[in-house]
From TrEMBL:
Keyword 4Fe-4S: no
Compartments, record wording: Membrane
Main subcellular localisation: membrane
Protein name from the UniProt record: Transporter
Disordered: annotated segments: 1-22
Database matches in InterPro entries: AI-2E-like
């Protein structure tokens, strides 16, 4: 019997030809899987981009069509932030529930305002009336002086009537209000409620927000997809902290500027020092640009007295704003929200163009919130990548 040939391949071993035939299939399969994976990533990125574009477009359309309503809601949130912050302090001191602290703080505010109105309300009303008459007289005088000159007449054609210009409420010259570009929603609010009614709505909504802030925050979280709830919670908390810091710093800034303006104008012997100081403090709610708005009434009144008084008032406002910009504002921003001046002015221009007067007023707190949220959600820049 002949022994088996040891050189013959085993019965189940693949032949060299079969091995050669199956060898190219592994790289082809790997390449196909890589192509499918790349296609999936491309589709996923395209889907995310499409969702982002649709979301941004929907938000833009909503803001452009109902910007005034959005700004009313934001103003109510600012009122709620003030009430909530004060109520937290009262709750810690008196050991009472949060809602009771809010109601107590509102009652104290109403009582204090009633006392101020009872004590100095008639005098303040008379001074504000005199201020309105003086500003109207100076505006008309300036209008007549410029309107008699061809160049001045051309300049007045680009200003609305309420500022002393020649703009009329038609399609060519724009709106007589001059500051309302938010569209029909603003007109609905103005015609239905009026300015006083809108303020009442803002205050009432702010009180309800402050009474139960967790109810509304949890409601937003419930309608947020589960995968994004952690991010949304971070955004809500960051927004609350940023608004609280901004409002606290801005209220301190407004109070100091108003008091310094009132005291300085009183020392200079200027008439209507109290209402002019009140206007300067309120105008300082809008950083930088509000400074010039608050100085215009005082300069007009000073010009009616004399050029020397006008120079003194201009020097006073310049000194107050220098102190506010280089001493007080940096001190406040250490504990509040730091915003670059150029970004603040640009945000006022952009929001004012899209949302009218509401956007101009609330551009700074909105920008502060956006900066805080972006800083919280984005990764810090490594030192070697800094410019």
């Amino acid at each position: 019997m002949q022994p088996p040939d040891s050189s013959a391949p085993p019965p189940h071993a693949p032949t060299p030809a079969a091995s050669t035939a199956h060898a190219p299939e592994a790289p082809q399969l790997a390449g196909l899987e890589a192509s499918v994976h790349k296609l999936e990533n491309t589709v996923r990125r395209f889907y995310r981009l499409a969702v982002m574009v649709v979301t941004v477009t929907a938000a833009g359309l909503f803001v452009s069509s109902g910007g005034a309503v959005v700004m009313v809601v934001f103003a109510s949130a600012l009122v709620a932030v003030v009430l909530h912050a004060a109520a937290r302090i009262i709750s810690r001191l008196l050991h009472i529930p949060q809602w009771l602290s809010v109601m107590l703080f509102v009652l104290v505010l109403v009582g204090a305002l009633s006392l101020v109105v009872h004590v100095s309300g008639p005098e303040l009303t008379v001074q504000l009336s005199h201020l309105h008459e003086a500003l109207t007289s100076e505006r008309d005088a300036l209008h007549n002086m410029l309107d008699s000159n061809p160049l001045g007449h051309a300049v007045l054609d680009h200003f609305p009537r309420f500022l002393g210009g020649n703009m009329v409420p038609d399609g060519r010259a724009g709106s007589e209000g001059g500051m309302d570009f938010a569209g029909s929603m603003t007109n609905v609010l103005t015609s239905t409620f009026g300015s006083v009614g809108t303020m009442v709505v803002i205050i009432i909504a702010g009180v309800y927000f402050a009474l139960s802030p967790h109810l509304y925050a949890n409601g937003i979280l419930r309608i947020t997809p589960v995968a994004y709830r952690s991010t949304m919670r971070t955004v809500l908390l960051t927004t609350g902290h940023a608004l609280t810091a901004w409002v606290a710093g801005q209220m301190l800034d407004m109070t100091v500027v108003g008091m310094l303006t009132w005291s300085g104008l009183s020392l200079l012997g200027m008439p209507l020092a109290l209402p002019l100081g009140l206007v300067a403090g309120l105008a300082n709610f809008v950083p930088y640009l509000g400074t010039f708005i608050g100085a215009v009434p005082a300069l007009l009144i000073a010009l009616s007295v004399g050029p020397r008084e006008a120079m003194m008032v201009a020097g006073l406002y310049a000194a107050i704003q220098t102190f506010e910009g280089y001493v007080m504002s940096p001190f406040i921003q250490k504990r509040a929200v730091r915003m670059p001046p150029a970004l603040t002015i640009l945000s006022q221009t952009i929001f004012g163009a899209f949302l009218g007067m509401w956007g101009f007023i609330f551009a700074s707190p909105i920008t502060a919130v956006l900066l805080a949220v972006a800083s919280r959600l984005s990764a810090p820049l490594p030192p070697n990548e800094e410019v």
